[in-house]
Amino acid sequence: MICGKRFAHRLYLEFSSNVIAGRHGLVAVFCSFAIMFAGCGNGRDIPTDITAGEVSIVGNAFATQASTQRFLGRATFGATQEELNTLSGSDVSDWIVAEFDKPPTLILPKMIAEYRALPEGKYNLKRRRTSDLFIENAILADDQLRQRMVLALSEILVVSNQGSLTRNTLAMGHYVDTLSENAFGNFRDILTDLSYSPAMATWLTYLNNDKGDPETGRVPDENYARELLQLFSIGLNELNLDGTLKLDRHGNPVETYTNDDIIGLARVFTGMSFDVDKYNRPMRYDYTASYRDLKFFPEHHSRLEKTFLGTTIPPDTDGEKSLEIAIDTIFNHPNVAPFISKQLIQRFVTSNPEPAYVRRVAGAFEAGSYTLPDGRKIGTGQRGDMKATIAAILLDRDALQSADSTPENFGKVREPILRFLHWARTFSDGKPVAGSEMMLKLKSASTAIGQQIFNSPTVFNFFGPNYSKPGTLTSDMGLSAPELQIINDVTVVQYINFINAFIYDRSPLVKELRKFPERKHEGINANYAQQIALADDAQALIAHLDILLTGGQLDDATKAHIQELMKELPIRPQTRDEDRLLRVRVVISMIMTDPAYLVQR
After folding, report:
1. What is the rounded distance in angstroms from the CA atom of residue 583 to the CA atom of residue 588?
2. Dihedral (CA of 468, 474, 479, 482) sign
3. Backbone angles phi, psi at 525, to 5 degrees
4. Which of 193, 364, 416, 441 qualifies as a cystine partner to 388, CB 3.0-4.6 A?
5. How many domains does the chain contain in total?
6. Is residue 269 part of a domain?
7. Residue 278, class by beta-carbon neighbours within 10 Å (0-12 exposed, 13-18 middle, 19+ buried)?
8. Higher confidence at residue 570 or residue 7?
9. Which domain range does residue 545 map to?
10. Helices in 267-370 by DSSP H: which ranges?
11. Closest CA to 418 of 486, 509, 512
12. Residue 342 contacts residue 358 (beta carbons within 8 Å)
């Protein structure tokens, strides 16, 4: 295996080369690099309490500004310099308790107010309004861990702003706020509340899902029943607590459910419609129904026996009770803890967590409790507690290894939207994002960087948790690198163009707003004042931005390369301000396209 630092520098030269656009083989190089940071590594014997790793390891979280940036780079959308100054040297237990205590920053109330203010004849908000408001929260909201959890959950329990949901923006707002309000609650409640969600029912086609009719041959829609099991809760194969496959006596995986289970479960989700006076009445008759829980219409709900996963719901059981029994049955399946825990680890920390890491987090999920480094207990003690689960993920000894001791194959590719939000949060001027960033909305941009918030092309998200790019070292070693599913020789180059448009203040929205000086406060306006003050000293500027963006992970060769380039950008007396700003922008651009930044370790 190639030395990580030496290979990172080599790939950096690839990124900074002008001929990169013509190299169709670059993706293989990028994949080979990413694998070194993707990480590699019975029964349901549940610990009664899960405790943080060794104090010496946990203490690394906020030990220095570099370790603080690395921790917050996972747990939030990025650390500001003010946060690095404030939190470095403090107790991570205090931080995580404070995050859990913060009220959610919701988007639906804003959307409802905007809807009510629409002029006569307009009946919907802009299609991307949900993502616009979430972007604002990700950049400016104080409840950062919660907002980061919303994004992670939205990539597991997927609803997309596509199809008929483009005309039901308020339902999307309700979905996002459902994730936000439950982010630190219990996973069982997440499954229940999403099952009653108008957005989920629209997306997975069980809205107005009528009971079967043997005379016409009509059968209940099975879409949600299948995805609820396969993607949202237990997966396809039985798992040990550490996330490894259970095998039968022939060494083969054991399937978790059959098609008969899907048929039985699909009957549960019949007769659900908007909470209005009549089944299948269009939502326009009462727009508030788009952000209220669905309700069951008894005459359209299946009264047949419903058998699935070893549970039988008796005939003539009403819809509400049937759904309650179904969610209890699914939630109590032993697969839920390792299946969900591993995916959350992937979203926050590393693509291929060691089985022992998965087991510790799944144990916290099962126990509903986690003991922080300072001895305080987190969680209600009820299985599925999300506070205990996320604390176990972020404070695990594997997650908090020092940069020097982290194995080369540990970490994850930073997904494109996280790179953008990190830049915006780090350099934001702190003003509200009053206008949507058009570059994030354009279809061409979606193709370019491969990702738009709440706009996945399918229920399988932009990338699957077990994805391994064929023909790469990742694949050869049997490892997953989910984010590489949307990274190729086109998106690698287009990301550079995309992020530079913001770094250099050339995004489409900025160009548009220049026509309207009175709207100059809108959009995302970077404030580089602190960096400009360091621009005369290239070494100091690079060191500062290395900590701020990568947590001090640039290698010496890369820093020397950037410093050498600074000689080509002298600060001249007659254009001092412009030259300083250019230096800052160039260094930010080079770091944000360097492997030390693109791969979180």
Report:
1. 9
2. negative
3. -105, 115
4. 364
5. 1
6. no
7. exposed
8. 570
9. 528-600
10. 319-331, 336-348, 355-367
11. 486
12. yes
Q: Collect all residues with Cβ–Cβ distance below 8 Å to 186 and sequence separation of at least 6.
A: 380, 382, 384, 385, 386
What is the CB neighbour count within 10 angstroms for residue 128?
A: 23
Q: Are 451 and 417 in contact (CB under 8 A)?
A: yes
At 83, list the tokens: 């946060």
Do the beta carbons of residue 159 and residue 193 sit within 8 Å? no
Residue 145 lies in a domain: no
**H, E, C per residue of 413-464:** ECCHHHHHHHHHHHHECCCCCCCCCHHHCCHHHHHHHCCCCCCCCCCCCCCC
3-state SS, one letter per residue, for 517-573: HHHCCCCCCECCHHHHCCCCCHHHHHHHHHHHHHCCCCCHHHHHHHHHHHCCCCCCH
With bands split at pLDDT 50, 70 and 90, how would you rate the model's confidence at 509? low
Contacts 24+ apart (CB under 8 A), 559-567: 561/9, 561/12, 561/13, 561/16, 562/538, 562/587, 562/590, 562/591, 563/538, 563/539, 565/590, 566/538, 566/541, 566/542, 567/538
Q: What is the DSSP letter of 24?
A: T
Q: What is the DSSP letter of 245?
A: B
Q: From the CB of residue 514, how many other CB atoms can be counted at a distance below 10 Å?
A: 11
How high is the pLDDT of residue 364?
98
- Per-residue tokens: 81: 């310099």
Whole-number Å distance between alpha carbons of 12 and 27 = 13
- What pLDDT sits at residue 22? 30
Helices 386-394, 92-101: inter-axial angle, 10-degree rounding: 150
pLDDT of residue 514: 67
Q: How confident is the model at residue 166 (pLDDT cuts 50, 70, 90)?
A: confident
Look at residues 186, 90, 183, 82 and name the one whose alpha carbon lies nearest to residue 137. 183
CA distance 464 to 467: 5
pLDDT interval class at 521 (50, 70, 90): low
Count of positions (residues) in the chain: 601
Residue 456, pLDDT above cutoff 80 = yes
Percentage of the chain beyond pLDDT 70 is 84
Determine the 3-state secondary structure of 378 from DSSP: strand
Q: Does 291 score more than 60 pLDDT? A: yes
Closest C-alpha among 526, 478, 518 to residue 501: 526
Structure token digits, residue 30: 């990028």
Q: Is residue 313 part of a domain?
A: no
Query: What is the spatial distance between Cα 544 and Cα 591, in angstroms, rounded to a whole number?
Result: 11
Cβ pair 211, 253 in contact under 8 A: no
14 sits in which H/E element: helix 4-16
Q: What phi and psi, each to the nearest 5 degrees, are found at residue 446?
A: -60, -40
- In the block, tokens 């160039």 appear at 586
Inside any domain, residue 72: no
